[in-house]
Amino acid sequence: QLQASGGGLVQAGGSLRLSCAASERTFNNYAMGWFRQAPAKEREFVAVISWSGGRTYYRDSVKGRFTISRENAKNTVYLQMNSLKPEDTAVYYCAARILRTSDSGYIYYTKRTEYDYWGQGTQVTVSS
Questions:
Q1: Backbone phi, then psi, for 24, in 5-degree steps?
Q2: Nearest to residue 89, comparing CAs of 51, 115, 127, 49?
Q3: Using alpha carbons only, what angle is made at residue 52 by residues 50 and 55, rounded to the nearest 5 degrees?
Q4: Which of 12, 31, 50, 57 is most exposed, with the fewest beta carbons within 10 Å of its own?
């Protein structure tokens, strides 16, 4: 079970930090991702982090502004969002992918179907 939090209303240029807490005791067996969905748009990939936290990958539009991180001891993944823009407005979802033996270090999981579990979403609104 995944519980996302930290969303809110912020002005353009501001920052927010999203958190996603997992109840799974084997949290470090999951790659974790963040997706977002704006009104009338498809849910899109934002960022992913490997089980160890050593590898990350971002969509181009958030590179340099967003940082994904994790604390396995706390079963939590974070998304630090800086220099927010109105186009970042969306519901943000965290997702978990159970590691497969075939993954072998690959982390470029950008499709919804590649994840096994989803959180309930947290609203981020950026005003201009």
A1: -75, 125
A2: 127
A3: 45
A4: 12
pLDDT tens digits, one per residue of 5-58: 999 999 999 999 999 999 877 788 899 999 999 999 999 999 999 998 889 999
Under 8 Å CB-to-CB from 102, ≥6 apart: which residues? none
State the sign of the Cα–Cα–Cα–Cα dihedral 42, 100, 61, 84.
positive
Q: List, for residues 82-107, the tens digit of each pLDDT value.
A: 999 999 999 999 999 998 888 877 88
CA distances in angstroms from 85 to 10, 12, 13, 32, listed in the order given: 9, 5, 6, 24
